[in-house]
Structures are given as C-alpha cells and as structure tokens.
Sequence to fold (200 residues):
Amino acid sequence: MALLIAPLAMVTVKGGRWHRRWGKIFFWAMAEIALTAVALCWLRSGMFLFLIAILSFYLALTGYRVLGRKKPGDKPPAFDVGLAAVLALAGAGFIILGLTGDQESKWVRIIFGILTLRLGLMDIYRLFHPSQNKHAWMYSHLARFLGAYIATVTAFSVVNFRFLPYFWRWLWPTALGLVGIAVWRQYYVRKFKNQDHGNV
Fold:
C-alpha cells in the first residue's frame, strides 16, 4: 500500500484535499510497517532490519510532524529532540554492525550508518537553530516523505531484485532517490523565489 499510495500524493496538488488524504494513508501504512517490522526483527530478522525500521518510520514521522512547525520561530518539542537522538544512536548502531559483520553486508551497513547518524545530528542542530526561510518546513516535509518512500522502494528491491548484487539491491533506491530529492527541492526553491519576486 505504501509503495503504491505515495506516488498519488506526489502528483496531486500540494496542500489539496487529495494530497493530504493520500499522505495520511501513506503515513499510517508506514506506521503499520514499522510496528510489524519491529516485532519481526526481534523474532527473526535481527538488529539490522530493526534499525532500518527505525530509520524508515523516523522519516515518515518527522515529515508529518514538521507540518505543525511552519514558523521559523517555533520551539522544538522535547519529543522531536528525543526522536533525533534515537536516530543518531541508530546511525551509530549501523556503523557498529558494519564494522563487526560479514564482508558482504559491511559497506551497506556503514553507508546507512553514516547517512543516518548525519541526519540525526543535523536534525538536533536544526531543532535548536531553525532555518529562517519561511519555506523550510515545506522542504523538510518533501524530503522526509520522499525519504520514507525510498525506504519502501528499497524493501521491494531487496525482496524482489535478487538478480542484482547485494550492495546495489540495497543502495540503488537511495542513490537515485537522493538525486530526485535534490532536483525536486531545487524546483520548489526556484518556484518560491519567482513567487516572492513577483510579489515585490
């Protein structure tokens, strides 16, 4: 459901009824994935997929929560600071698993660890030093939900694209997704800049 619903939110008018509706369905689908993933990880799948579940739901949850902090001066709730700290710990956990695990999965875990740790630390900093750009919440919302969607594509790739080498099966969605996020963000930067210039 998450895999199929997210593109509907992407192509509908931002802020419109259907964008919000598809976005909420995607969010709750990700929440259900996270809950079931945590249970399965402790029963069978291990620590690596537990950390993946944390990262995936963190992206969806923070993408949702930023909608309540649209003003640059809004103070960060302690809950959000705690979430970012948990993510930073998860990033460190990825790295430790990579350094102590087998060679096949080593670099996948280390790369996820570096990206996750960096995101957690940057979020802690940004919560206490928010951007003064009035559109910052929009960029964050966009990047987080797209990041959560990358996680769903990654899960689909890992399970179904067995013909790919282990490394690329895990990392091609992230590589392409980060480029996509950068392009999409730049599109909105230019759009808002043109709107602001027109208003002047």
